[in-house]
Write a structure and sequence with these properties.
4 strands; 3 helices; four-stranded parallel sheet; globular; alpha/beta
């Protein structure tokens, strides 16, 4: 890396479950953040993640801001409907991360309830 000061970026998480991630990024993009992590809580709510990714990238524009990670939080290891939604969300995030420019999908590993 040519500039060590940029090796660690200052970022924030942006809620994406409600479909407003691009709008939220646009509102805070000039507040000094250098990276964003759009994240989903338990479900993507059936959103078109390819389209959402394109809108998020457009909201950043030509600013020196990255989206290196998508977040998917919930428990993909159980079998209730919301857990199955979370598992599908993980799959959808992995399949569509490149539309955001992201190379990582992060979240909770989940646990088996007994």
């Amino acid at each position: 890396m040519s500039n060590p000061a940029k090796a660690i970026r200052i970022g924030t998480m942006i809620g994406a479950s409600a479909g407003k991630a691009a709008e939220r990024i646009g509102k805070v993009a000039d507040m000094g953040f250098e990276s964003f992590e759009p994240f989903f809580w338990q479900t993507t709510n059936g959103q078109n993640l390819a389209e959402l990714g394109k809108r998020c990238v457009e909201a950043i524009g030509d600013r020196d801001i990255t989206i290196s990670t998508l977040g998917m939080f919930g428990n993909p290891l159980e079998t209730t409907e919301i857990d199955r939604d979370t598992l599908q969300g993980w799959k959808d995030c992995i399949d569509n991360a490149h539309h955001f420019g992201a190379t990582c999908v992060a979240g909770f590993t989940g646990r088996i309830l007994q």
